[in-house]
Amino acid sequence: MRAYLSAGLLGGSAALFAAWPIDDTPAGHSEAATRLPAAPAPDLETPTTVNEIQLAVGRDVPGFGGFWVDPEQPDRLKIWLTDASEQLEPTKASLARLIGDYPALDLSKVDVLTGRYGFLQLEEWHELILPVAAEYSGWTSLDVQEKANRIWIGVMDDGTQEQIERRLTQVGIPLDAVEFRLEPKPDLRSCPPNQDPDELTDCYRPVTGGFEIQGETAYGAPLGRCTVGFLAKRNGIQGMVTASHCTEHIFNLDNWPTSSEFHQDEIENRVGVEAVDPPPQPYIGNCPGSYVCRFADAAWIQLDSGVAANQGWIARPEYGSPEWNYNLFRVSGVIGSYVGKEVFMVGKKTGLSQGFVDQTNVDMPYPTQYYPNALLLDQHIAGFYGDYGDSGGPVFSFTENPTDLLNIYLVGIHWGGPVTPGSVSYYSDVQYAQFQNWDLGPLDVLPPPSGGGGR
């Protein structure tokens, strides 16, 4: 999650956990299903996401304005500095201390860009802008954009831009630090039931990431068809992750213990039942006081007893096609996203697609039936193709070895994009989804020691 600047948020995390417990009781066939123990709180003081790393560097070097990678020059790191003569070496030293989990970022090949604003300053303004922008129905997104050393605000029309500009002037935020972008509201990418047959819709055991799942309400009504993101154990119990909006009610356990059920191919091929999908909460991160927020459009589905799971493996279909010939990707870990990073997605409709991250840590309005004032914090936008039915699909990157086409790092859970599917897609960060008990909590996503995988 974003290492938020507001005083007291990190120090008061224990109080926040105590104030907003979630009902994470698992569901299943048995009436004697036991309650899952609460997931442990993370160590929020250790920078783990790219955004946290940039904030930590900004504390060391206030003139540091962020970093990114140009896909046309993937081996070079772009760094914004307000005074390169004094700030370059301290910035490289700070980055060298913090980016050990991101070996693809090469500090020996750095291009310095002259920036106007420090990253800390932009984040402070970001936190001030969010409650202002959230007042307007025409607002679509908010992002500290590393490529521009500016804050990007997405709006649906010029009128919304003018209204927000007036408010920003009133609260003392310079308009030179802000860039407005016309863009549509996000659209979810589940597809209607009983449509769109293709190869990844087959019932396959053991259950594997990338395949289609069909939701059904506790009363037997069909829900949309989506994609299994990845298999994941939570507190030692086997389950899988998909998008929350693939369940009956987004951000809600649906009539537990008879929650949304999930099947493959035919109704008798039941896989499991929704078990963890906490409600959005106020005052987490930089969530404005009159809103409720979550970090991920994600739900954890507990697998039924006896359903075989391909823990740590994801289907590897053809590029741009759902055709599958039993090839697999192996999950080697979880890693964060930065601007310019190459990522891939597997969806039951699209198959394998590829693109580059264009925006990170974007805050978006995400109204639902029960929570019309909900926001999604820290979402990412990338240039891979996604279509209806791909919701829940795993987003990942390859390892640093260019010849290794087997091992991958999970980075996200795909959930939507513009109304017309195209070259831009949105995803929630797997790291953020695990950080707080108000999302899914810690997950074990790696293959078992025996290796597993395949048929």
Structure description:
With 455 residues, this protein is α+β, with helices and mostly antiparallel strands. It has a domain at 188-435: Trypsin-like serine proteases (Thrombin, subunit H, Beta Barrel), CATH 2.40.10.10. The protein contains six helices and 24 strands. It has helices at residues 13-19, 50-60, 84-98, 119-133, 158-170, 430-435; strands at 64-68, 77-81, 110-114, 139-145, 150-155, 178-182, 187-188, 207-209, 212-216, 222-227, 230-234, 237-242, 261-264, 266-276, 292-294, 299-303, 309-315, 328-334, 342-347, 351-365, 374-382, 394-398, 407-417, 425-429. The strands form four sheets. The chain has a seven-stranded antiparallel β-sheet with strand order 10-9-13-14-16-12-11, with no helix packed on it. A six-stranded antiparallel beta barrel has the order 19-20-21-24-23-22. A three-stranded mixed β-sheet has the order 1-2-3. A hairpin with an 8-residue loop joins strand 22 (394-398) and strand 23 (407-417). Helix 2 packs across helix 3. The longest helix has 15 residues, at 84-98. The radius of gyration is 21 Å and the shape is globular.
For the structure shown, list the relevant keywords.
455 residues; alpha+beta; Thrombin, subunit H; seven-stranded antiparallel β-sheet; six-stranded antiparallel beta barrel; 15% helix; 33% strand; globular
Report strand %. Answer: 25-35%
> How many angstroms does the end-to-end distance come to?
36 Å
What is the name of the CATH superfamily of the domain at 188-435? Trypsin-like serine proteases
Strand order of the largest sheet: 10-9-13-14-16-12-11
Give the assembly state of these chains: single chain
Query: What is the strand tally?
Result: 24
CATH class of the domain at 188-435: Mainly Beta
CATH topology term of the domain at 188-435? Thrombin, subunit H
CATH architecture title of the domain at 188-435:
Beta Barrel
